[in-house]
Amino acid sequence: MKKYRTLFRLVAVCLIIIVLGGLLGWYYFLHAKNSQVNAENAGTGYGTAAPTFEGSTGSTYANVISTLGEQPGVTATSSTSRLWEVSEVPVAGFGWQGGNSATLDFVERSSGYVFEAQTQGRSVVRLTDTLRPKIYEASVSLDGSVMERSIDDTGALITFTGTVASSSSADATSSVGDLLGNDLPTGILAIAADPAYDALLYLIPGPSGATIVSTDRTGQHEKQLFSSAITGWRLIAPGDDTLVLLQDPLDGVEGYAYRLQKSGGLSLIAQEPGLTVLPQASSTALLYGASSNGTLALFVRSSAGSPAQALPLQTVADKCAWAPNASPFAYCGVPQTIPSQQFLDDWYKGLVHTSDEFYEIDASAASSTLLYDPIGDTSAQLDVEDPSVDPTGQYLAFINAKDQSLWVLRLAQ
User: Which of 41, 96, 156, 231 lies in disulfide reach of 46, CB 3.0 to 4.6 Å?
Assistant: First the structure.
């Protein structure tokens, strides 16, 4: 009897050990499985705060900040750097505001929202909450007028022009308002918004070519300026109520640029293969570039009567901007290497990108000086596009063609 009692106890102890071992194993199995599930959820974004569509910046800009945990550009440049990444989110265009402060307004590409950036304090605030998605081209004039271009569901080109209205929100402290305006005729081939005048100039197809039309920013008071059998024109409004016409540039193909006279006639101002031009407002000074077989050349002419002189820089005029008030100085992004034998064509298509340094050009002396090398301030590859100097002459804003981010460079050291 005693023998059986001892055996029973031994079996009971063994069963308890087995049960406890099983429970312990099950616990560790569940714990490991739960850790795996949590890791998978975290990887897919489960538990992350939902995107916000409100606030002073709102939309994609605020969501990028909340995702990264920092303001775009903070890791790329220090607060003391001359270089500031204003928006990591792609932008469709921008423009400087009038006055003594260097204030920059820009349009978010995905939403059409308008933002305001203060270069002094490096702060950004959203101005509008009118959703206009998929804006591919935009501009902002000195008085704050906005032009946005997009494509509708049928593939037609849509052009909208408007202004930022004051906030209608119940919150009197809100700075976010509406973008109110009008649509221009559909199918506009090219458009130029004069940054200083209440003028829009656009190219629209006609029965025997194309017609250039001027209008105010409300889309009224239309006036036909010029008709041409050629439809491939680029329109350039330097900001002095004049217009320059440039044939669509092609690498290695002879190009022509003309100034449109008040009489409706054209005067030739430049001719080169792969021609790009940059006229100066309130002046006859001109920067123009040539591109052919992987070789770039840049020329400057200080006035209409002076001869053009070659500069020791390989870049295109599209990467340059004049200083304000008819200053003889201009600023250019200059590629460190030319990545293609058909550079101009491939660059316009977005097939190649450059890593640029910044040079200052003195048109009166036909000389150039290295102004700024971004190496050391940022690891980003800066491919300068649509550069513009603010009215005070202190800052150069540009879009990085590589990712459509917006940057500002302080010109003085």
Answer: 41
- The closest of 126, 190, 180, 125 to 157, measured between CA atoms, is 190
Q: Which residues contact 18 (CB under 8 A, 6 or more apart)?
A: none
| The two structure tokens encoding residue 314 | 């390989």
At position 94, the amino acid (one-letter code) is F
pLDDT in tens, 237-262: 999 999 999 999 999 999 999 999 88
Query: Alpha-carbon distance 244 to 267, whole Å?
Result: 10
Q: How far apart are CA 398 and CA 94, in angstroms?
A: 9
Pair 388, 376: CB distance under 8 Å: no
- What is the tens place of the pLDDT at every residue in 358-380? 999 999 999 999 999 999 899 99
Mean pLDDT for the chain overall: 86
What order of strands is seen across the sheet that includes strand 233-236?
233-236, 244-247, 254-260, 266-273
Q: Which of 292, 301, 392 is nearest to 345 (CA)?
A: 292
Q: Where does residue 363 rank: exposed (0-12), middle (13-18), buried (19+ CB within 10 A)?
A: buried
Q: The tokens of 381 are what?
A: 């590859």
In percent, the amount of the chain with pLDDT more than 90 equals 69
CB atoms within 10 A of CB 47: 8
pTM, entire model? 0.81
Pairing of strands 384-389, 309-311: unpaired
The 395-400 sheet, strands edge to edge: 83-87, 405-410, 395-400, 384-389
